[in-house]
Write a structure and sequence with these properties.
The protein is built from two helices and 27 strands. The protein is mostly beta strands. The strands form seven sheets. A four-stranded antiparallel sheet has the order 1-27-26-25, with no helix packed on it. Strands 2-3-4-5 form a four-stranded antiparallel sheet, with no helix packed on it.
């Protein structure tokens, strides 16, 4: 009865935050904390946030109102320490894993916001280094990551699912990898070769829903594939879009005048930031914008791959996570200092 009552009380908040376009005109709160690199946040059941900042080498515990409650752990190689804290990964019961790429392990944080112990990365069958790249969780004790993050001749890679408790690893989906070529760079008349990712051809973007479903967006086709928990694949229809041209200035500014890469003439529909999935299974996709456009563009899709709405976040802002009733956004100021905001 208590669980049913709690669900009824939470339902209006969930609907207001996830079932309609949020109001980005004014934040519910802006944290006074300044961040250097803020990519993802993890909301606990009482509204507190675990916020890794790899640029500062710190993990912060933030209150439900944005205030700093303290820092978690410290840098080092000890059993409750970390080097570079990356993704905050939800486990059941308000426990959290922090991916520590430099030491190839996770730091386990308890519900009280204190470090408990470290957990080594799993040994992957047939090798693989995808834990250095994108890692996601479903909050049910499973982590998801690509097998490989950089293999020059590889076109596709499986998304692996690792159950932290049992150690079981299986494959749940296949995604297209970024295109890589052997490129030539000419500097002061001297030629040098290296394997590089082709800009604007970064491969599929993907994310994991709270129920364990995996969503994959194919950037050039701009369509969604949704793998349900029972393994069924639901493939949406392509969403029409106008490709944003890659300007000569962008090629020169980003890659230098002497870099020889087969850069496409237009950008794909979505950026390589990945996708973020709300508790209501809405898929938030970061879109490329034309040079000179203000704000950041986002599309919101349903799990059938249909476009629900498009919206623009004012200024330099990016979605970094969802809570039960709030959407968390990072804002960059004129000095590139990052600020955490909450919207409803």
């Amino acid at each position: 009865m208590k669980k049913m009552l709690l669900a009824l009380l939470l339902a209006p908040a969930l609907l207001s935050a996830q079932g309609r376009a949020p109001d980005f005109s004014k934040p519910v709160w802006t944290s006074p904390i300044e961040f250097t690199e803020l990519y993802w946040v993890r909301e606990l059941s009482d509204g507190r946030l675990i916020v890794p900042d790899p640029g500062e080498g710190a993990i912060r515990l933030v209150g439900a109102d944005g205030r700093l409650l303290g820092t978690i752990g410290r840098r080092g190689g000890g059993p409750q320490e970390f080097q570079i804290p990356l993704h905050p990964l939800a486990l059941p019961g308000d426990s959290t894993l922090i991916n520590d790429r430099d030491q190839q392990r996770f730091l386990l944080i308890g519900p009280d916001g204190k470090p408990v112990r470290t957990i080594p990365w799993p040994t992957l069958p047939l090798g693989g280094d995808g834990l250095r790249d994108q890692v996601r969780s479903d909050g049910r004790g499973n982590l998801y990551f690509p097998r490989s993050s950089f293999q020059p001749d590889q076109v596709n890679t499986p998304i692996l699912r690792w159950n932290v408790s049992s150690g079981r690893i299986d494959s749940v989906q296949v995604v297209g990898m970024a295109k890589r070529v052997r490129s030539k760079t000419t500097i002061d008349g001297h030629e040098a070769y290296s394997t590089r990712v082709v800009p604007y051809d970064e491969g599929d973007v993907w994310g994991v829903a709270p129920n364990g479903a995996v969503a994959v967006v194919r950037p050039r086709e701009y369509l969604l594939e949704w793998r349900a928990m029972d393994g069924a694949i639901h493939r949406g229809t392509p969403i029409p879009y106008d490709g944003v041209p890659v300007t000569p200035a962008e090629r020169t500014e980003r890659f230098g005048p002497g870099v020889d890469l087969p850069i496409p003439a237009t950008k794909p529909a979505v950026t390589p930031l990945g996708i973020t999935i709300s508790p209501a299974n809405e898929i938030w996709v970061s879109r490329y914008k034309a040079p000179g456009d203000s704000g950041s563009r986002w599309d919101v899709l349903d799990k059938e791959g249909r476009l629900l709405r498009s919206l623009t976040l004012p200024g330099r802002r990016r979605v970094v996570g969802f809570g039960r009733s709030l959407i968390y956004v990072v804002r960059y100021d004129e000095d590139d200092v990052q600020h955490l905001e909450a919207y409803r």
